[in-house]
Amino acid sequence: MNFYTLSSLTAALFLSLSVMLLFFPELVFWLFHIQGNNAAILIMKRAALLFLGFSITTFLSRDVEHCPARQAISAGVFISMGALSLLGTFEFLRGNAGPGILAAVLIEAVVSFLYFQSWRIGKQKLQF
Question: What pLDDT digit, counting tens, does each position of 80-96 carry?
Answer without folding.
Answer: 999 999 999 999 999 99
